[in-house]
Amino acid sequence: MAVGRNWIRPIRHGLTFLFALSFGILLYFHQKDENCLGGSTRSLMKVAVGTDAKPDILERKLSQAYIWLKKTLFHGEATIEDQPKDRRCNHFHSCKSHALVGFGRSFLLGFTIRSCFALLPLLLKPTKLMKKSPRIFTDRDILSLGVFLGLLSGGNRAIQCILRRIRGVEDGWNQLIAGFVVGWSFVLNGSIEVGMYVLSKAAEAVYRWLVKMRAIKPIWMGDKFLFSLSTAIMFYCSIWEPHHVRFSYFKFLVKASGNRYGRCVKAFAPVREDCGIPGLSEYLQWKERVTPFLKNV
User: What are the angstrom distances between the C-alpha of 181 and each of 89, 153, 174?
Assistant: First the structure.
């Protein structure tokens, strides 16, 4: 809406920058002060990036597999209890192993979750399931999610270990810098929903930190107000400026409402064109795109 009114200019890779900054903020509080994160955010961060001091069962199994491969292929003598090379690191084995295992753990999680979503609709169609199952190992969308999550975990761990050696301190800035750098891997995913979710959680964490530091006062019913305001803006756009609504969300609204929303959009079309809504030329292009979709509504 703001771009359509020429209030702001489109920012190239703006969402990726916001995601990188937000992920860095979440990593900072994840390491420095978890109380500033909500319960769901804390759980999500533990699943996404893990923890140095308490590896989960998947990470322990991958660590054992990594050590076995190292012994088998390179005749190394390392064990899972190897001490880190830098005394400031809290993990139980070398920094390289810590980063590689973190990448493998998150890659497997992302690959498994995305594969399940891809194959779940085919459970009742065994023939198609058998044909499509081998393709998941070469599917770009499935692999990109695994690599994206792997970089968020493994890349973050590697950069943190490097910064500990360079800076010689562990004060939270290492996590902020590492999170910002690996956050640029968002280009592999590019999901607006993921970007907006992480941005909202980072804003929530900063708000809680400011309240804790007594820099601002708690806002009574603030979350309810923001939800109501967001809903009002969304309802306004969905009727008066539907070209500013994501097409995938537009199709969802049409199907979820039993085509009632589509009929409402078509009914207001002459009014929009007569009144000259913001971004009229963009609206006319959008109208040509959705006309085939709404022809049976």
Answer: 19, 12, 11
Measured CA distances, 7 to 1, 2, 10, 246, 263 (Å): 9, 5, 10, 20, 31
User: Cβ(83)–Cβ(46) under 8 Å?
Assistant: no
Q: Of the candidates 196, 200, 191, 204, which has an alpha carbon nearest to the alpha carbon of residue 248? A: 191
State the burial class of residue 121 (Cβ atoms within 10 Å of its Cβ: 0-12, 13-18, 19+).
exposed
Other Cβ atoms less than 10 A from the Cβ of 201: the count is: 21
Residue 81's pLDDT is what?
Answer: 47
Two structure tokens written together for 182 = 């690996």
For the chain, strand residue ranges (E) read none
For the entire predicted model, the pTM comes to 0.78
Give CA–CA dist 147/153, Å, rounded: 10
Q: How far apart are CA 286 and CA 86, in angstroms?
A: 57
SS3 state at 145: helix
For residue 140, the surrounding DSSP H or E stretch is helix 140-150
Of 73, 161, 150, nearest in space to 110 by CA: 150
Mean pLDDT of 218-245: 85
For the chain, how big is the Rg over CA atoms in Å?
24
Contact in structure between 227 and 242 (CB atoms under 8 Å):
no
pLDDT band of 87, cuts 50, 70, 90: low
Q: Which amino acid is at 229?
A: L
